[in-house]
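task queued by scheduler; priority normal; single chain, no ligands, no partner chains; default sampling; output format set to structure tokens
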Amino acid sequence: MTTTCLRDDALLALHLGEAPAADVRHLEDCPRCMRQLGRLRADLAQIDAHLAMPPPPTGRTRSPRVLVWAPLTLAAMAALAVVLLYPHGQGPAPAAAYDPEVVVFLDDVEDALDPLAGYDGAEDALEPLGGVGDADLQGRTGTPPVDPAAGGRSTIGLDESFFQVG
């Protein structure tokens, strides 16, 4: 005789006492369904025991070391704030007095660092690269390029500027 064993929902109905009479008769004759019902009852007992336990504590417990170091840390921070925020005995440094010799010296330094200082219109004499000719002709006026390989000599003397500005 082939019978189908009970499913989990039928076993749960047997546990709760709500199963039909045919399922109760099958349970009495089938050792496999009896074992399944025993496992279901053990699982439900574990669930009930877990639900009966008190909930875990929600607050964190502090260790005694934290209780000792917290006031010390606060005291150190307060001392540091007092040291940094308390006005010291020294006043602000006096402003430097105006010295005309320093101003003249700084103007001389500015002139020495500016290569075009004193040459009016010198900026206009320089053509941008890629303008009319190649980089060797930048700033020259009326001087043809010299080819040293052909035996030519440079037309620029030692006392003349490369850019012919002065």
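post-processing summary
- The longest helix spans residues 31-52.
- Helices lie at 8-16, 21-29, 31-52, 64-85, 100-113, 122-125.
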